[in-house]
Write a structure and sequence with these properties.
By secondary structure, the chain is mostly helical. The protein is 71% helix and 0% strand. It is built from ten helices and no strands.
Length: 268
């Protein structure tokens, strides 16, 4: 597929390793597993994730968790959305992809195989609906355990398009496609911060969070469409990893999706 400067495919229609049990508990996502897969298979899913790191905490995933949570808190914080927040999300999404591809469990290949099998057995529409429902459950669990407030409503057309991109490019390839667009958006936000001046900007009643960027030109249509596609793609990958029991990756991608949804709400 060809892509534009935002990493969007130009020939696809576009709409407007996990931690061990101790790490599950420290991250507060251990109870999300029963929510996703049911009580009967919760222990098996948790056991698979624990075996991935042979009972030891994965320092790369720990780093990714910290960075995506820092970025999430940053975009929701009183200081406003900054380029560093978006840049950190892009960098850690790519790092996650490289880590999934490089570790001995090869979670990226397992995700791709899982998705192909799901589509073969259930069909494209049913798979998209299943993943949307799974993401809502995952987001609900993260809200309870981590205070990650979900404002993401997965839209049917965007979900199907993101699913097509994921099938075409694979888990890691899809994550890499998002980095250039996120870096470009981060640069635009940096430029806006430089030109707006140092004076404080009063916040008006009913003002959107992104309106504090006085004089900041919001992303054009393609930029907002890119954000929408990236958000849906990250959410779908989070849902698939959740179904597979890889909760470390599911957690990180879900938080990244929620952070970018807030950015889109603010700037688009």
């Amino acid at each position: 597929m060809r892509s534009d400067g935002w990493g969007l495919p130009t020939d696809v229609p576009t709409p407007t390793p996990g931690p061990d049990r101790r790490t599950f508990l420290s991250l507060g996502v251990g109870c999300v597993i029963p929510l996703l897969v049911g009580e009967a298979t919760a222990k098996a899913a948790e056991g698979r994730a624990a075996r991935q790191v042979q009972g030891m905490t994965d320092p790369v995933m720990d780093h990714i968790h910290r960075e995506v949570m820092r970025a999430y808190r940053g975009v929701r914080g009183s200081g406003g959305i900054r380029g560093e927040h978006v840049r950190a999300l892009g960098a850690n999404v790519v790092l996650l992809g490289a880590h999934l591809q490089g570790n001995k469990e090869k979670e990226d290949a397992r995700l791709d195989a899982f998705l192909r099998r799901r589509i073969r057995d259930k069909g494209r529409e049913a798979t998209a609906q299943e993943l949307s429902a799974t993401y809502r459950e995952l987001a609900a669990g993260l809200s309870v355990q981590q205070g990650v407030t979900s404002r993401l409503e997965l839209e049917d057309t965007a979900t199907r398009t993101a699913l097509d991109v994921l099938v075409a490019h694979g888990a890691v390839g899809t994550l890499r496609r998002y980095e250039a667009g996120l870096q470009r958006l981060a640069a635009e936000i940096d430029q806006a911060m430089m030109t707006r001046g140092a004076r404080p900007v009063p916040v008006a009643v009913r003002q959107k969070p992104g309106d504090d960027f006085l004089g900041y030109p919001p992303p054009d249509g393609s930029g907002c469409t890119f954000l929408d596609g990236a958000i849906h793609g990250l959410a779908l990958e989070a849902a698939i990893f959740g179904l597979m029991g890889f909760m470390g990756a599911a957690f990180a991608l879900a938080v990244a999706a929620e952070a970018l949804e807030f950015v889109k709400f603010a700037l688009c």
